Amino acid sequence: MTHALGRQFWRFVIPTVAAMLVSGLYQLVDGIFVGQVIGADGLGAINIAWPVIGITYGVAIMVGIGAGALSSIARGEGDLPAASQWLAAGVWLLLLMGIACGVMLAGLGEALFRLQQAQGPVLALAEDYLQVLIWASPVALGGIALPFLIRNDDAPNLATVLIGVGALINIGLDYLFIVLWGWQLTGAALATALAQAVVLVLGLGYFHSPLCRVRLSLTRLSLSWRETKQILGLGLASWAMYLYFSFITAVHNSQFLSYGGATELGAFAIVGYLCTLYYLLAEGVANGVQPLLSYLFGAGRLKQMQRALVWALALTLFSGLVFSIGFLLFPALFTHAFNRDDQALLQATTQGLRWHTWALYLDGVIFVIAAYFQSVNDGRRASWVTFANMGIQLPFLLLLPLWLGVQGVWLAVPLSNVVLIGWVLWLLTRDQKRRRIPWGRHSVLD
Question: What average pLDDT does this structure show over 358-386?
Answer without folding.
Answer: 87
